[in-house]
Write a structure and sequence with these properties.
Distance between the termini: 31 Å
Shape: globular
Strand content: under 5%
Radius of gyration: 21 Å
Number of helices: 12
Helix content: 55-70%
Strand order of the largest sheet: 1-2
Low-confidence stretches: 81-92
Amino acid sequence: MVEAPLLIRPYLDRLSRSELFVVMTGGMAGIAGTVLVLYATIVGPAVPEAAGHFLIASVLGAPAAILIAQIMVPPIMAPKVVGPQVVGQKTRERPTGGAFDEPQSVAGSAMDAIVKGTSAGLELLLNIVAMLVVLVALVHLANTILGLLPSLGGEPLTLERGLGIVMAPVCWLMGVPWREAATAGSLMGIKTILNEFVAYLRLAALPAEALSPRSRVIMLYAMCGFANFGSLGIMIGGLATMAPHRRDEVMALGVRSIVSGTLATCLLGAIVGILE
């Protein structure tokens, strides 16, 4: 969510709205290489060849993210001239796919680059930590408020349980049998409200009869992404610092990027469900 946009930081201010959303969705629809081995180690006992599945999911997550992002926020193409008429809508926004101007250097020397880079890095870190703490705290606050309500099924009501109920039909559409959809939906709820690390721990701890081997592979792909509220805090803190002029757009597209990132990974789960 932050390292990848950092590589194109000089261009972030000039991305179209659609391109910016592709960047955000790409961050939500994949996992970092630093945690890939960790997740493979956790899920390995429950899903054979988990490392290979995670590697495939990470690679295929990129085109899936582009597809879903372009559908949810369609690109604005440059108007075409046909004879004396112009086909297409005129817009002040740079059209998707249009050429970029060469970015100007922001540092006058190597020492100036070190000083400015250190300051920018510190500002980026502080914003990310602050947003992460705030959004995670809001999730816990919401769960505390929901805990005051009567229990549902003998357990307190939480955001992840509520979202799990909503996600059960989605898991069924991915190919998970209906008798297992509630369990799979609860994993998706945990992954979205908390994070995929906790969800993979729950997947690895499930008894053998809870999910079939095919359903476990589907859920491995469906949960292989950073689309959760903690990641949203990291993304907003990072992008708003790197491209302060796009802050309003980043905020407006933030929650939508969780949806698009989740749809991208669910698309991979559905494809795997067909192939398995």
